[in-house]
Amino acid sequence: MKNIKQLKFWNFGGMYYFYFMIWALIFAFLPFWLDKTANLSTSVAGLVFSAMAVTALILEPIYGLIQDKLGLKKYLFGFVVLCLLFIGPFVQFAFLPLLEMNAIFGAIVGGAYLSLCLNGGVGVVEAYIERSTRASNYEYGHVRLFGSLAGGTAAFIGGIMFVRNPYSIFWACTVSAVILGVLLWALRVKKEEKEKVHAPEVEEEESPVTKENILNVFKNRSFWGFCIMMIGIATMFDVFDQQFPNYFASFFDDASRGELVFSRIASVQVFLEAGFMILAPWFINKIGAKNGLILAGIVLFVRVLGSAYLTEVWMLAFWRLLAAIEMPLMLVSIMKYITGVFDVRLSATVYMLGFNFAKQVGITIFSYVMGTLYGSIGFQNGYVVMAIIIMAFVVVGALIMRSERYYTKNKSAAAA
């Protein structure tokens, strides 16, 4: 039985590894591909990411409710894997021809398809694995570290692959999707196992979800504070990373050399991130999930502002490495805050609306806005504006949110 439990841990880890291998390859090298291979301007490249975000806005509410209804069933996850399988053929045989025919139309179609796999699909992956690991009595952060390891691997090999053949990145995603599909098919998580591990929570979590339960989420001020916080942290994290590789490469006489160096730095960053992910659950349990989110926002603010003013290559590299602290703080805090504050039966819905939906609203707006600003006032001035936006959202969100410990005390008082 112990061997089966250990095998399941590696199954979860493998699913995270191969999904985020795809995620890291695309988000690290798609900006280079759009710039060098598709020859898009920064504003049209920003439109690709905006289209990804708009599609996710449509998908997230639907995905959340479906996944909460499905519980531990894998059908929706399987649909995401099916979309992932066709990334290689889509990019090589459809995306580029569409961009050449009409850049704006191609950007919208390409962004929408990629969102099925990434911006929209990631909510399904994260929510399903979080629920399954909780059912199997694993600490989410310990399993999630495999996603960071995947990011490190992708950054290390991706630079070499991209320089040799830009399309190889997307075909590698298709191969990873095949392995992910096999791991998903092999995974077994039973309700009986969940009952043994979380017996006190079973009655609440297994009872039917009502319309009133869903409406209570929207009546909770912490939900709206959480949404605002996610725009300040998760949105701006992604918007900053969208075109930062091009900014970094601009400091090199040979752009391909800059791309390769960036891939090495990103590789180091995500391996460091994996190390911090091991410690993050313990640390967040000590300081609280709300404080963890605030701290993640402060780190992002420092990272963006530093990239504007400290423009030596080694300084930019150091500032990039700060993401290794920021990402574990954000991811672990998000999951602990959701399960600590909201009805656990609605964890997928809250995750997809409070985190992913809010994040995509921000990305829809700020991807295009920042892309335009980069073109008009330059990357450095654009980063100063971004840093101010980050701090404003983090402060407002923190003022509205209540800590999870506030709700724990109220529950204890009500029980007494």
Automatic annotation (TrEMBL):
PROSITE patterns attached to this UniProt entry: MFS
Pfam families with a match to the protein in the record: LacY_symp
Membrane topology field: Multi-pass membrane protein
Organism domain of life: Bacteria
Subcellular location: Cell inner membrane
Keyword Cell inner membrane: yes
Gene Ontology terms for molecular function: lactose binding; lactose:proton symporter activity
Stored InterPro entries: LacY/RafB_perm_fam, MFS_dom, MFS_trans_sf
Tagged with keyword Membrane: yes
Membrane-traversing stretches: 12-34, 40-63, 75-98, 104-129, 141-163, 169-187, 223-240, 260-280, 292-311, 317-338, 350-370, 382-401
Domain Major facilitator superfamily (MFS) profile span(s) in chain numbering: 1-405
Coiled coil regions in record: none
Record's keyword terms, sorted: Cell inner membrane, Cell membrane, Membrane, Transmembrane, Transmembrane helix, Transport
One annotated Gene Ontology cellular component of this protein: plasma membrane
Protein's recorded name: MFS transporter
